[in-house]
Specification:
Blueprint (H helix, E strand, L loop, with lengths): L2 E7 L16 E2 L2 E2 H11 L4 E6 L3 H10 L6 E5 L6 H8 L8 E6 L7 H14 L1 E7 L8 E4 L5 E5 L6 H4 L3 E10 H9 L14 H8 L5 E5 L11 H21 L3 E2 L5 E4 L2 E3 L4 E2 L3 E4 L2 E3 L4 E2 L4 E3 L2 E2 L4 E2 L4 E3 L1 E3 L4 E2 L4 E2 L3 E3 L4 E4 L2 E7 L4 E4 L2 E7 L4 E2 L4 E3 L9 E3 L4 E2 L4 E3 L2 E3 L4 E2 L4 E2 L8 E2 L18
The chain binds uridine-diphosphate-N-acetylglucosamine (UD1) and calcium ion.
Uridine-diphosphate-N-acetylglucosamine (UD1) binds next to strand 1, helix 3 and strand 10.
Length: 457
């Protein structure tokens, strides 16, 4: 679309009090800056010029590991001499004929729709500003309009007269330009202002003086232009973002018990008639099939949940793939590599890891099943442990179809249990069991009749 984007992200973020660069702080599970880059991608930017300074190596290494689809041009601003100065570092790399949008790395929720409209305005006028009318304009640049309501300047708070400070229309910071003209206007910026900085906002008055009309677009969505300077603003914006997602899910047909108590921190695919109870956290990439029901306080990380599965309260699942109609929990922990066949059941206080468990099999209570392959219709009694670790290496347990494992059994891996075998409760199984056999491996019971209890002296 003949558009380039310049993202300003050189600021220190002092008020975050963090070793992590501000723009890498996550919102909805991904860095603020990633949201901005996604918006640039959504409007088909040809190149994103990323102006970084403070801790730029950390920002760079993040995006080396998490590449984006739009080409990135890394621009170093070693000294932060103002927004105008930041744009000056990138402008020479932009073709004169292009429209260039200036975004901030710490304004994460900017919408592609606003950017498209702003771009359209700049394409006719050469310059356009995204503004907002707000109750509290403190600290922000004020929009100065003439008697015909045309924008003639932006005045920073620190340079504003008491009358100008009364203005409630503010500069969101997001602007669009014809690149060729922007370069001309940038060359006449100076630092004769209260902060001794090169203000990008001064291009507005300069453009006006050169006979340009300044385009403007007013947004009514405070969140999309909300900048993050400290962790309280980040937390507030996170809640707004989550509420917005939860409402969207509800409008798409998901039963959301309380839109204020749902956190989705990554891409989510949902089927029909899915239900999410309170305090559910969906992290990473998750898929929920039709009629899936998720109970309260459940955490899902990178899971694939088949149709009709029920996940009961307080369960924690990571990297698990469930076929249809499985029941999990309450209080279950499914770790990466857990794969369940249809109608499998994992009950309370059960932990699974790298465990493939067949259709109709049940692990109902208090067990650990790790590095295991369990076939169909197996019943694993309460307190069964796969002893998969000898202190040095991990070993595998194989359980064939129809096996019945009695309660409190230790399966010392490597070990294989044949089809339809039965294990007596309390056994320590150290050798393979052939199919259909009963294995009992425990101390024999002895009853002593006439036993007298000791008496107190
Ligand atoms: C700027 C605008 C102001 C607007 C406000 C909205 C100017 C002069 N002022 O204020 O009108 O209301 O944003 O939040 O443009 N940055 C750099 N390099 C620099 C300076 C800043 O990369 O040398 C980046 C910062 O990291 C930040 C963004 O630019 O992401 C804005 O900088 P900030 O100092 O927060 O903006 P203000 O100058 O306060
Ligand atoms: Ca700011």
């Amino acid at each position: 679309m003949n558009t380039d984007v310049i993202v300003l992200a050189a600021g220190k973020g002092t008020r975050m009090y963090s070793d992590l660069p501000k723009v890498l702080h996550p919102l909805g599970g991904k860095p603020m800056l990633s949201h901005v880059l996604d918006a640039a991608l959504a409007i088909d930017a040809d190149t994103i010029h990323l102006v970084t300074g403070y801790q730029s190596d950390q920002v760079r290494s993040y995006f080396d590991q998490h590449p984006v689809a739009t080409p990135l041009n890394w621009v170093e601003q070693t000294e932060q001499l103002g927004t105008g100065h930041a744009v000056m570092q990138a402008a020479p790399m932009v073709d004169d004929s292009k429209t260039v949008l200036v975004l901030y790395g710490d304004v994460p929720l900017i919408s592609p729709a606003s950017l498209r409209q702003l771009r359209e305005k700049a394409q006719t006028t050469g310059i356009a500003v995204l503004t907002l009318i707000t109750e509290d304009p403190t600290g922000l640049g004020r929009i100065i309009r003439d008697d015909h309501d045309r924008i003639v300047a932006i005045v920073e708070e620190k340079d504003a007269t008491p009358e100008q400070k009364q203005i409630t229309e503010i500069n969101t910071g997001i602007m669009a330009f014809n690149a060729g003209r922007l370069k001309t206007w940038l060359s006449s910026l100076n630092t004769a202002n209260a902060q001794g900085e090169y203000y990008l906002t001064d291009t507005v008055a300069i453009a006006c003086r050169s006979g340009c009309t300044v385009g403007s677009l007013q947004t009514f969505d405070e969140n999309e232009v909300q900048g993050v300077n400290n962790r309280l603003q980040l937390a507030d914006l996170e809640r707004s973002y989550q509420l917005q997602q939860a409402r969207q899910l509800a409008l798409q047909g998901v039963t959301v018990a309380d839109p204020a108590r749902l956190d989705v921190r990554g891409p989510l695919t949902v089927g029909r008639d899915v239900s999410l109870d309170v305090n559910v956290i969906l992290e990473g990439r998750n898929r929920l099939g039709d009629r899936v029901s998720i109970g309260p306080n459940v955490v899902l990380i990178d899971c694939d949940i088949g149709d009709d599965c029920v996940i009961l309260a307080n369960s924690h699942l990571q990297g698990a793939a469930l076929s249809s109609a499985c029941t999990i929990g309450p209080f279950a922990r499914l770790r990466p590599g857990t794969e369940l066949g249809s109608h499998a059941k994992i009950g309370n206080f059960v932990e699974t890891k790298k465990a493939v468990i067949g259709a109709g099999s049940k692990v109902n209570h208090l067990s650990y099943i790790g590095d295991a392959s369990v076939a169909e219709n197996v019943n694993i009694g309460a307190g069964t442990i796969t002893c998969n670790y000898d202190g040095v290496n991990k070993h595998k347990t194989t359980i064939e179809a129809g096996v019945f494992v009695g309660s409190n059994t230790a399966l010392v891996a490597p070990v294989s249990i044949g089809r339809n075998a039965t294990i007596g409760a309390g056994s320590v199984i150290t050798a393979d069991i052939p199919e259909n056999d009963l294995a009992v491996a425990r101390g024999k019971q002895r009853n002593i009749s006439g036993w007298k209890r000791p008496v107190k002296k």
